[in-house]
Amino acid sequence: xxxxxxxxxxRRRRGRPRDRSADKAIVDATLELLAxxxxxxxxxxxxxxxxxxxxxxxxRRWSGKEELIADAxxxxxxxxxxxEADDLYSTxxxxxxxxxxxxxxxxxxxxxxAVLGELQRNPSFAAAYADRVVRPRREAxxxxxxxxxxxxxxxxxxxxxxxxxxxxxxxxxRLLPVGLPPVTERYAEQLxxxxxxxxxxxxxxxx
Length: 207
Known about the structure:
There is one protein chain. By secondary structure, this protein is mainly α. It folds into two domains: 16-72, Homeodomain-like (Arc Repressor Mutant, subunit A, Orthogonal Bundle), CATH 1.10.10.60; 77-199, Tetracycline Repressor, domain 2, CATH 1.10.357. It has ten helices and no strands. α7 (106-121) crosses α8 (123-150) and α9 (160-174) runs antiparallel to α10.
């Protein structure tokens, strides 16, 4: 007679463990094809061939190309996942530095134009990108700022949504190839100093 524990163990043994090396090969192939050929050419067939896996291996992990590409970009930009330090200023400064480093990365730079164009014309990709890349990080940053308000590290009346926009928007614009001044080594510090005067605690010590 099988006990519930034995039955559970047998059920677990039936499932094949997910092959992490296949995951990495698929993500790497996706990023390479995006950089080399653009969004349209990065098909499931092309990705599978480059990664050395079957189409079904991809479809067991992702429902389609849009979700796969969004997840691949999230992996490429993993440094933007929030790592909270004790000091809010240091946390935000490191986040801006990570942001500028990502946008200065040659691989990301080759992928970005294709991604921006596709976000405008492909609602399915825009939804996947928002759900998997933008929204989780924005929410993590907002939660960080909310905790900072509770601790008195930010002004109570500060508009947290606008603060998030200010942290990400300026470096994004400055790093686009549109002829703006180059980002210097002290850009992150200078940007945060400019923002901080408007969001930090009042000079009289009151939040």
